[in-house]
Amino acid sequence: MFDALTSRLNSVFRGLRGRGKITEANISEVMREIRTALLEADVHLDVARAFCDEVEQKAIGAEVISTLKPGDVMVRIVHDELVSLMGPVDSRIPFISPGPTVLLMAGLQGSGKTTTCGKMAKMLLERAKRPLLVAADLKRPAAIDQLEVLGEQVGVPVYTERGHQDAVKVCKNAIKQARKTDRDVVILDTAGRLAIDEDLMAELATVASTTNPQQIYLVLDAMTGQDAVNTAKTFNERLELDGVILTKFDSDTRGGAALSVRRVTGKPIKFIGVGEKMDAIEEFHPERIASRILGMGDILSLVEQAQRQYDVKEAAQLEAKMKTGKFTLDDFLVQIRKMKKMGSMKELLKKIPGMGDMMGDADIDEGEIVHMEAAIQSMTPKERANPKIIDVSRRRRIAKGAGCDPSDVSGLVKQFEPMRNMMKAMSGQSLSQRLRMGTQFSQAMATGGAPKLKSKTTSGRRTLSKKDRRKRRRK
């Protein structure tokens, strides 16, 4: 998300950096370009106009001190206004005692509401809560089955009443069940509905008034753009929303909904869905999103993602190995898999300050990481512990098992030694510094700074090189 907007804004700021000072003339020119960029990103017209007017007023009155350039001043002003546009946001859930705390999920059909319920349950479970999922979507076929599958995945019980058609009664009974079974949070997965469907909207309003939820969240698909903003406005008029959860935030969308929802509806985005996995949900931080939009990275979110994958004991063991230089290919394989759980390499790199500009439109082949895994897995435990013993015959065997060329295995082994030295140098550094070095190295491994492991299989058959074919003909 925001890639096109980030590119346009950075282009605007680069043009302003060549100016000696900020004037009304060049600010007016810059604001026209920023307004166009916002509209192309599907930002609401009124929001784009108001935003540009506020930025222009502050920019004209801004003093450019000798240590700053006009472009840097504009970046700071736009950043502050983006934060103001999307915030303030308080993502904390007001838990009540005695419970249960009730969270009601509403939204359109296909917005990702049921999946979001599963993600919220997992997030609360990790925060030492005891959630109960409630299958109150009685309209969509297999909705109950889907929630049961998600509940099993995250380890959270699901309350169901199959064959029942009264969502209000199901929700009331579920809250009673939560009290009996000592569940302190109830997540109501209601049926998806259109805002113009008066009967379903009335049912949803009745569920809300009957269960008296502590939080009502509207789940919106970020890819719907301005329609998402209009939907939020309509739902808010009927339900008095507490906030919005924006799904598919990692998709290739323009980002207008994220920038418009707060100003148009008065309701903040509280959480964002950033992937398909059950742990792919984050609290919404306007200042971090503003930094991403302006290409400044988001190291805090990156650190939080890493902390979810590493526990204290694992971190201590890794620290000890790094200090002594005993980091092995087995350890490297574990790190690769943890990085993959954190998301795509491209998205991780974008969160590192400065990496977004360096990458530009460069494409990262995530498949190379898979090939690297295959090569390491094809090694014996002894080879992974001491790669120096991998000779010609061992390289051939490993390459055959991984479906790559022996020279690629040789390159991986040669690259591992400087990587181990880097790990030793990283010991004692902060987590953010480690992430910066680790992701940069992984990017190099995946994009050409280190040997690429190219699969040599096509439709399950090994494709011979010209040299191999000539050898076969001679035989």
What do these coordinates show?
The chain is α/β, with parallel strands linked by helices. It has three domains: 3-86, SRP54, nucleotide-binding domain (Four Helix Bundle (Hemerythrin (Met), subunit A)); 101-296, P-loop containing nucleotide triphosphate hydrolases (Rossmann fold); 303-458, 434 Repressor (Amino-terminal Domain). The chain contains 22 helices and ten strands. An eight-stranded mixed beta sheet has the order 3-2-4-1-5-6-7-8, with helices on both faces. Strands 9-10 form a two-stranded antiparallel ribbon. Strand 5 (215-221), helix 9 (226-239) and strand 6 form a beta-alpha-beta unit. Helix 4 (70-86) crosses helix 11. 41% of the residues are buried.
User: What's the N-to-C terminus distance?
Assistant: 56 Å
The biggest beta sheet reads:
8 strands, mixed
| CATH classification, class level of the largest domain | Alpha Beta
CATH topology-level name of the largest domain: Rossmann fold
Give me the count of strands: 10
Helical stretch count?
22
Architecture per CATH nomenclature, i.e. the level-2 architecture of the largest domain: 3-Layer(aba) Sandwich
Shape type = flat
Low-confidence stretches: 445-463
Tell me the radius of gyration.
26 Å
Helix content: 55-70%
Fraction of residues in β-strands: 5-15%
Order of strands across the main sheet = 3-2-4-1-5-6-7-8
